[in-house]
Amino acid sequence: MFRSQEFIKDIIAGLSWQDTETLVAGLLKTMGYKTRMTAKSGGDLGSDIIASPDELFLEQPLIKVEVKKRTKDKISAPDIRNFIGGMRGHHKGIYVTTTGFSKEAIYEAERANFAITLIDSDWLVELLISNYDNLEPEIKALVPLKKIYWPV
Q1: Over the range 84-111, which residues count as b (16 or more CB within 10 Å of their CB) and which as e?
Q2: Domain that holds residue 77
Q3: Which residue among 26, 86, 120, 145 has its CA within the 20 to 30 Å range from the CA of 110?
Q4: 148 domain residue, yes or no
Q5: Which H helix or E strand runs over 129?
Q6: Per residue, what are the HEC states of 7-25?
Q7: What is the pLDDT of residues 73-103, one digit of tens each?
Q8: In total, how many domains does the chain have?
Q9: pLDDT number for residue 57
Q10: For residue 3, what pLDDT is reported?
């Protein structure tokens, strides 16, 4: 892995949980989805963001997104089972973490009755880099980057 990617992971690790969710929502918007943050007052029922191809959230797939900002512990199988248990009315799921996933968590996601994409910090950085030029300015401000060219 390139050192620059490790530095980007450090920047993301320094974000608040709210800014991390905003970053993921902004990234999904750039990738063509409409997003809505879930209400936090009474608990988010296992999701932080709802994503859809349309602004009215009527078209499928309706995607439930959970963002877990952690510093050391990997996402476990019970975490994934809880996420799966709250999938009523959603067709696909995305679970994003700033750490990683245990083998058991990956197994739980693979055997779910619907598609669940697991995004760890490495993949999150890859997605951020590949979509960075098209991000909205307020999302870029969360992880300010400058493109440089290095001779080979």
Answers
A1: bebbeebebbbbbbbbebbebbbebbee
A2: 3-137
A3: 26
A4: no
A5: helix 121-131
A6: HHHHHHHCCCHHHHHHHHH
A7: 899 999 999 999 988 877 899 999 999 999 9
A8: 1
A9: 86
A10: 82
Q: Which amino acid is at 70?
A: R
27: amino acid identity, one letter: L
The CATH number that applies at residue 76 is 3.40.1350.10
For the record, the structure tokens of 40 come out as: 């936090």
Contacts by 108-112, CB closer than 8 A, 24 or more apart: 108/77, 108/80, 108/81, 108/84, 109/80, 112/80, 112/84
Task: Provide DSSP, 34-93.
Answer: EEEEPP-TT--TT-SEEEESSTTS-SSPPEEEEEE--SSPPBPHHHHHHHHHT-TT-SEE
- Regions of the chain where pLDDT drops below 70: 1, 40-46
The model's pTM is 0.91
pLDDT, residue 70, reads 80
